[in-house]
């Protein structure tokens, strides 16, 4: 079921882009796709080939599609904001994206400077929302733990 939904959502996202559909319904669809990828990562990350999936769960492809969907969604948010129609759910998804950037998944390792650059591109109103502030605190805490080597010491204890 997951592979079918993943494939259909990818096709829908590509169709929306090719047909230049960037309205409120397209925004809602992209947001639902991102939520699907988040839930899939949480629920299916431990499944491998033969454990309910003929092809296994590919976290890398899931993150890749979530990343692509986020980028397209943010372009729509920016376009709507420029027309004076901000989207109320934008902070939620900017926060998810900031948290995604903190993931140390192979192929998606992001330097702290890159996250800082993404945050700097946000409007002050978005950057100072609870959702984005939470992601920033998680980033600071993660950097603190790594710098203090608490992560490796807690694993060995």
Quick tags:
single chain; 157 residues; disordered C terminus
Task: Characterize the structure shown.
This protein is mostly helical. It has helices spanning 2-18, 24-44, 59-82, 90-102, 112-121, 124-127, 130-148, 150-156. The protein is flat, with a radius of gyration of 17 Å.
Q: Using the CA coordinates, give the radius of gyration.
A: 17 Å
* Helix content estimate: over 70%
N-to-C SSE string, H for helix and E for strand: HHHHHHHH
Output the structural class: mainly alpha
Overall pLDDT metric: 80
**Total number of strands:** 0
Largest sheet: none
Shape: flat
H/I helix tally:
8
Question: Into which percentage range does the β-strand content fall?
Answer: under 5%
Straight-line N-to-C gap: 40 Å
Q: Point out poorly predicted stretches.
A: 144-157
Outline:
The chain has 157 residues and is mostly helical.
Helices and strands, with pairings:
Blueprint: H1 2-18, H2 24-44, H3 59-82, H4 90-102, H5 112-121, H6 124-127, H7 130-148, H8 150-156
